[in-house]
């Protein structure tokens, strides 16, 4: 019986994680562009279509006021899974 190394078994999951990193980088860049503030990918989380941004109250207020614009730009650039921003 041939025993595979752990890295071989986990290679497909690494590709998926790398794809999520690229997606979060893109989302953070779009939000930074629309709101004119710096948002890092570490402050973004996407779960079940809800994009959650961690940050200051000023950032959250700005995001709430321009939520429709942010969602529109995200969808126009291919992030159709985002239906809500918090």
What does this structure look like?
By secondary structure, the protein is mainly alpha-helical. Helices cover 57% and strands 12% of the residues. It has a three-stranded mixed beta sheet. The longest helix is centred in the first third of the chain and has 30 residues, at 6-35. The model has no long low-confidence stretch (mean pLDDT 86).
Main attributes?
86 residues, three-stranded mixed beta sheet, mainly alpha, single chain, elongated
Summarize the structure.
The protein is 57% helix and 12% strand.
Name the average pLDDT: 86
Q: Count the beta strands.
A: 3
Record the strand order, biggest sheet.
1-2-3
Q: How are helices and strands ordered from N to C?
A: HEEHHE
Shape: elongated
Low-confidence stretches: none
**Tally of separate domains:** 1
Determine the strand fraction and express it as a percent band. Answer: 5-15%
What is the gyration radius calculated from CA atoms? 16 Å
For the largest beta-sheet, the strand count, sense and barrel status come to: 3 strands, mixed
Helix count equals 3
Instruction: Give the N-terminus to C-terminus distance in angstroms.
Output: 51 Å
Helix proportion range: 55-70%
Could you say which structural class the secondary elements and strand pairing correspond to? mainly alpha
């Amino acid at each position: 019986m041939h025993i595979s190394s752990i890295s071989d078994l986990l290679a497909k999951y690494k590709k998926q994680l790398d794809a999520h990193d690229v997606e979060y980088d893109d989302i953070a860049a779009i939000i930074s562009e629309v709101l004119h503030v710096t948002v890092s990918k570490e402050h973004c989380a996407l779960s079940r279509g809800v994009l959650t941004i961690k940050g200051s109250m000023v950032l959250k207020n700005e995001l709430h006021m321009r939520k429709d614009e942010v969602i529109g730009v995200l969808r126009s650039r291919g992030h159709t899974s985002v239906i809500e921003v918090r």
